[in-house]
């Protein structure tokens, strides 16, 4: 089984292995993550040639606060794996996976945009969905859902009616 | 981005004829159907660098899903890929059902499958029609939009809406197929066949069209995989990966269909793959209609599905069930799940995390066209400005899905 092979291969690098609704999940420390991800991509037993998705979950109130979640997929072996990397809230960084999968480029930019997690050695880490002058990271649980940050100044048409056109 | 040395030298020489021109194309350009901006660096008409800016249609989908109950997420999913809303509904419902361990009735699986495939055809018709219109084949565009109307009529007959369907629920669907649905499908498909044949004749061997599409926007097999492309974009590069075959969901394992692939990975292959997929989708629908079993379309568990109105008004238990679902929402056990369906543009995945309360803790959607847009830069560098339009058209970027 995949989980047994992973445990055999990586040993102590895997902090936890789990099976959630029939899906394989492993947790890896952020220091070990680059080597583990590289091995997962390159070794024929795993052959995860697809980085299907990369995102994060904010567990506010728990430490470490963030979890960066990689969804991997292997075409050759047709199996999937979820790799979770815990990241502390006050020092949120992980190593970039852009060397391994090009899809990591935009995914990491989005994750940075939404969660403020820094991806080390990403060549072009800037916001992607939001605009550059946006303050804060909206998918963090402490970002209020009703905060407004308009790009152009908002005018209340009732309080400040437009001058009548001639 | 650093310029290659030969360009940097040209800039130093500052001969106006050799100058690199910066051009911002978009965000609302009449030839790109979607709000998107290309920051181009041009040498004449040749693209030296292209920075793609997305996010103009960002509506905070993922943040908003955390505010309501699980059922209240369905209307948001309609608005992801609005050319094929039924597939989004099905994808989210399947993810939550997997987390709850719900096994839906057979008929529900078939109806969901039929609606997904109808949506796949409408999506491909939108994509191909628009792409054809943008290279001058206005006739094809109108033919295809007309054919799409036939299918929207079917969607409307089932869900009551053309676009904002909100038709799935966790544990079932809100409406079954109408009684005359088999006849309606026959009529619609007869007309659709005629349109597809016309469009095929107008485009597939059309010199102008082929010149605009063939060899443009090419992406190798390795690059396509590395960029995380799925769906028609990946299959055009020769990789026969389809979620319906690789991890069959619903009842796709009982269907006999093929996965069309291309060889070159260029725009013409993408066009052909999408065109062939419409025939395959039709084949699947016809098989499913033949196999369609009788029975309920919802699970019989009123912790998830609203009880019939008769019971709500006449029994205390029915009233309580109704109240609990509407006021508190369904209770999804704590845990997390990733569930993928084959959307019209590729693998549409939902990663949902529940903390056991009545609200989603985190809903992440994997939007297939976001990855296509990420690879656009690679497809375009060294090409002409006019190639942006065809390449962008074949990615079928849907703002609602890409920007969420």
Description:
The complex is a heterodimer of chains A (166) and B (404). With 166 residues, chain A is an alpha/beta fold. Chain A has a single domain, classed as Beta Polymerase, domain 2 (2-Layer Sandwich). Chain A has three helices and seven strands; from the N terminus they run αββαββββαβ. Chain A has helices spanning 2-10, 33-42, 104-115; strands spanning 14-20, 23-28, 50-58, 66-74, 79-87, 93-95, 118-120. In chain A, the strands form two sheets. Chain A has a five-stranded mixed sheet with strand order 1-2-5-4-3. Chain A has a two-stranded parallel ribbon with strand order 6-7. The termini of chain A are far apart. The relative contact order of chain A is 0.13. Chain B has 404 residues and is of the alpha+beta class. Chain B has two domains: 5-53, no CATH class; 61-402, Cytochrome-c3 Hydrogenase, chain B (Orthogonal Bundle). Chain B is built from 17 helices and eight strands. Chain B has helices spanning 5-13, 61-65, 74-78, 85-100, 106-134, 138-159, 181-203, 207-213, 221-226, 231-236, 243-246, 267-291, 309-314, 316-327, 368-380, 385-395, 399-402; strands at 21-25, 37-43, 46-53, 168-169, 172-173, 335-343, 346-354, 360-366. In chain B, a hairpin with a 2-residue loop joins strand 6 and strand 7 (346-354). In chain B, helix 4 (85-100) runs antiparallel to helix 5 and helix 6 packs antiparallel against helix 7 (181-203). The mean pLDDT of chain B is 87. The interface between A and B is large, with 34 and 43 residues.
């Amino acid at each position: 089984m995949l989980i047994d092979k992973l445990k055999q291969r990586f040993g102590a690098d895997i902090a936890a292995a789990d099976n959630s609704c029939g899906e394989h999940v492993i947790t890896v420390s952020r220091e070990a993550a680059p080597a583990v991800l590289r091995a997962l991509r390159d070794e024929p037993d795993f052959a995860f040639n697809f980085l299907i998705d990369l995102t994060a979950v904010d567990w506010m109130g728990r430490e470490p606060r963030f979890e960066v979640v990689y969804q991997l997929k292997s075409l050759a072996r047709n199996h999937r794996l979820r790799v979770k990397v815990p990241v502390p809230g006050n020092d949120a960084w992980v190593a970039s996976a852009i060397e391994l999968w090009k899809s990591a480029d935009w995914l990491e930019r989005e994750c940075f945009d939404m969660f403020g997690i820094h991806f080390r050695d990403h060549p072009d880490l800037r916001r992607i969905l939001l605009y550059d002058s946006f303050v804060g990271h909206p998918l963090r649980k402490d970002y209020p859902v009703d905060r407004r940050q308009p790009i152009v100044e908002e005018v209340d048409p009732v309080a400040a009616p437009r001058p009548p056109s001639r | 981005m650093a310029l290659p040395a030969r360009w940097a030298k040209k800039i130093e020489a500052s001969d106006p004829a050799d100058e690199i021109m910066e051009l911002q194309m978009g965000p609302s350009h009449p030839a790109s159907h979607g709000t998107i901006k290309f920051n181009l660096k041009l040498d004449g008409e040749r693209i030296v660098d292209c920075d793609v800016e997305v996010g103009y249609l960002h509506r905070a989908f993922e943040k908003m899903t955390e505010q309501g109950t699980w059922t209240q997420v369905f209307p948001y999913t309609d608005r992801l890929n609005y050319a094929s809303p039924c597939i989004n509904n099905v994808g989210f419902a399947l993810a939550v059902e997997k987390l709850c361990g719900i096994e839906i009735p057979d008929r529900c699986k078939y109806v969901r499958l039929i609606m997904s495939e109808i949506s796949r055809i409408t999506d491909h018709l939108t994509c191909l029609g628009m792409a054809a219109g943008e290279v001058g084949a206005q006739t094809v565009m109108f033919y295809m939009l007309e054919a799409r109307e036939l299918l929207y009529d079917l969607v409307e007959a089932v869900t009551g809406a053309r676009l904002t369907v909100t038709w799935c629920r966790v544990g079932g669907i809100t409406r079954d197929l109408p009684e005359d649905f088999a006849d309606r499908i026959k009529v619609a498909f007869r007309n659709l066949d005629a349109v597809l044949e016309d469009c095929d004749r107008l485009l597939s061997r059309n010199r102008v069209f082929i010149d605009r599409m063939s060899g443009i926007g090419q992406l190798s097999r390795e690059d396509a995989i590395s960029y995380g492309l799925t769906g028609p974009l990946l299959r055009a590069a020769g990789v026969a990966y389809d979620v319906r075959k690789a991890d069959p969901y619903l009842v796709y394992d009982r269907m006999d269909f093929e996965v069309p692939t291309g060889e070159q990975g260029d725009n013409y292959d993408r066009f052909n793959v999408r065109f062939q997929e419409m025939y395959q989708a039709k084949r699947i629908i016809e098989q499913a209609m033949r196999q369609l079993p009788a029975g309920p379309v919802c699970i019989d568990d009123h912790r998830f599905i609203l009880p019939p109105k008769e019971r709500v008004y006449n029994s205390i238990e029915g009233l309580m069930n109704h109240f609990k679902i509407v006021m508190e929402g369904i209770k999804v056990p704590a845990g997390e799940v990733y569930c993928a369906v084959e959307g019209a543009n590729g693998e549409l995945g939902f990663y949902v995390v529940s903390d056991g309360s009545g609200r989603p803790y985190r809903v992440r959607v994997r939007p297939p066209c976001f990855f296509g847009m990420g690879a656009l830069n690679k497809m375009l560098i060294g090409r002409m400005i006019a190639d942006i339009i065809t390449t962008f058209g074949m990615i079928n970027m849907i703002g609602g899905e890409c920007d969420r």
